[in-house]
Amino acid sequence: MPQHIVVTDYNPEWPRMYQEEEKKIQAILRENCTAVYHIGSTSVPGLAAKPILDIMPVVKSLEAADRVAAEFEKLGYEYLGEFGIKGRRYLRKGGDERTHQIHIFQEEDRKNIDRHLFFRDYMRTHKKEREEYAALKKALARRFPYDIDGYCEGKEEFIRGIEALMG
């Protein structure tokens, strides 16, 4: 069954849930991990979101991350490789009704790391755009309740517009 897209109001428990998962991720990646960030809509106070935590570990070596894939699988993650973004390792927990997504990037991949952090930080500091994005996501969830591609494509123009401000 395809993923059911549901956008909910901001949940103040999301930061705590992120911190719990971050500890588990750092314990697996150990010294290979140089940073872990809470990204995506659940990382933006006040922003409506699909209740899925997006977590971005930054590592010294993707190959070393690949070697601990089984450790992530013990926590319930599927280790899906690049999954459409060159230089990323994508993991998800919960299958089609996922609860967590991990996006691992190597520390030299500043383009991908910086765009995720820029978008998050922009949404945190620009209320008007945050409200526009929330309304867009709610409308897309109603329009594409079982079409994740349609939902994501519907957000693309908005996201790229914000990312273009990065310079």
Automatic annotation (TrEMBL):
<dbReference type="InterPro" id="IPR007344">
    <property type="entry name" value="GrpB/CoaE"/>
</dbReference>
<dbReference type="Pfam" id="PF04229">
    <property type="entry name" value="GrpB"/>
</dbReference>
<dbReference type="InterPro" id="IPR043519">
    <property type="entry name" value="NT_sf"/>
</dbReference>
<protein>
    <submittedName>
        <fullName>GrpB family protein</fullName>
    </submittedName>
</protein>
